């Protein structure tokens, strides 16, 4: 609600989108319930994710995004969707794209779920 997602989540979706949203929702709720993902009202809405696996446990801050963040994906070659996703995540958070590439899959799923929720 802090980042204006209520309207988006209420939109009519096809079956594939509904299933995809259910997976993202489950991933994000599990992260929230475990305390790894915090949603605050600081700075107009902020998600803070602390990876739970691997050696790098430094929190990653997701500010309310703007549309310009998507320009980061234009710098990647066609067909490299994961690289584009990591580039957008890096632009959004101020982190290096390699940081996302080095995350363990379950931690990366939280970050990519946030990406999909805002940018799909």
Give keywords.
3-stranded antiparallel β-sheet; 120 residues; mainly alpha; 10% strand; 52% helix
Gist of the model:
The chain contains six helices and three strands. With 120 residues, the protein is mainly α. A three-stranded antiparallel beta sheet has the order 1-2-3.
Large-scale geometry: globular
Our estimate of the beta-strand percent is 5-15%
Instruction: Indicate the low-confidence ranges by residue numbers.
Output: none
Strand order of the largest sheet: 1-2-3
Tally of DSSP β-strands: 3
The N- and C-terminal alpha carbons lie at a distance of 17 Å
Order of helices and strands: HHEEEHHHH
Query: How much is the average pLDDT?
Result: 81
Structural class per helix/strand content? mainly alpha
Structure annotation, total helices = 6
Please state the CA-atom Rg, rounded to the nearest Å.
14 Å
Largest sheet: 3 strands, antiparallel
Helix content: 40-55%
Would you write up a description of this structure?
A three-stranded antiparallel sheet has the order 1-2-3. The protein is built from six helices and three strands, in the order ααβββαααα. The mean pLDDT is 81. It has helices at 5-10, 15-34, 71-74, 81-93, 97-101, 105-119; strands spanning 37-40, 46-49, 60-63.
What topology emerges from the helices and strands here?
Layout: H1 5-10, H2 15-34, E1 37-40, E2 46-49, E3 60-63, H3 71-74, H4 81-93, H5 97-101, H6 105-119
Antiparallel strand pairs: 1-2, 2-3
Helix pairs in contact: 2-6
């Amino acid at each position: 609600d802090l980042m204006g997602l209520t309207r988006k989540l209420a939109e009519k979706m096809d079956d594939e989108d509904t299933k995809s949203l259910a997976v993202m929702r489950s991933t994000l709720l599990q992260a929230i319930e475990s305390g790894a993902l915090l949603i605050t009202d600081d700075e107009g809405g902020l998600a803070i994710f602390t990876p739970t696996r691997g050696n790098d446990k430094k929190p990653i801050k997701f500010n309310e995004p703007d549309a310009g963040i998507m320009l980061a994906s234009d710098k990647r070659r066609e067909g490299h969707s994961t690289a584009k996703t990591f580039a957008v995540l890096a632009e959004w958070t101020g982190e290096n794209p390699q940081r996302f590439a080095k995350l363990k899959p379950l931690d990366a799923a939280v970050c990519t779920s946030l990406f999909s929720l805002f940018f799909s």
